[in-house]
Amino acid sequence: MKTxxxxxxxxxxxxxxxxxxxxxxxSIKVVPIDTVYWKRSAQAGINLNQGSFSSNWKGGGxxxxxxxxxxxxxxxxxxxxxxxxxxxxxxxxxxxxxxxxSRKNVDRIFLDTKVGHRLSPVWLAFGNLNFLSQFATxxxxxxxxxGGERNVLxxxxxxxxxxxxxxxxxxxxxxxxxxxxxxxxxxxTFVTDDAITIGEPSRYGVAPGKNVRNEFAFQLIAxxxxxxxxxxxxxxxxxxxxxxxxxxxxxxxxxxxxTAKVNKYVNVNLTGIVLYDKxxxxxxxxxxxxxxxxxxxx
Length: 298
Hints:
This protein is mostly beta strands. The chain is built from 2 helices and 16 strands. The protein is globular.
């Protein structure tokens, strides 16, 4: 009797197990064999800002119009202990003020790819490649003693450009936050436009007569990307770059973006950048932008 009962139990357990989907052992948990390991997202949009005043407007102001475009894309692949993440951010915008030539107000090329091997549920060993530059020429506008202004060239495409290769450890306790410790980081700074020497004597740390500067450093990167509310997203990226040869001159950069979706195609975006880099300026640099525009996600 006991033997028959035991056989019936085994048969019932086997039938239930066969009815379930086959599984595969993941680095953290058991997942179905048909799990989708790719996560992809992309956004493209156009932002428009405009202001106008009557000729007798006593509050002061100047007529202006600004137009900007952007494209952001991200892909994330994870299977077992392997993780590959890539990101693209392209931005360009111009502003036209009354009685002035048009000039750019945003210009950014950001490419990033990272391969990781999971050592534990929250720690990964990684290798990272990052590129940062701009599309068009940049100027400093100086007022002339006799009136008017002149444009002084201070930047251009690949002047500067930064290519960074980094290996180290990553701490990733959640999907929306991670810390990267780049214990072995090499950065190349490119200035390929010799005319930059006139407008920017420091040439972003690249010695006169040369086009490339190499640095071996420690790099720390903190990323945060989370919806604070259903239609409100906050992105933050902090980067610390410490050249082992000159630890008294550590670079810091903080990028912030707060995006509110009005509806499926309209969003409001507030951005800010805080930068300290002695190769560019002894003082802290910052920029801020507020825009409303069309957004398409795919």
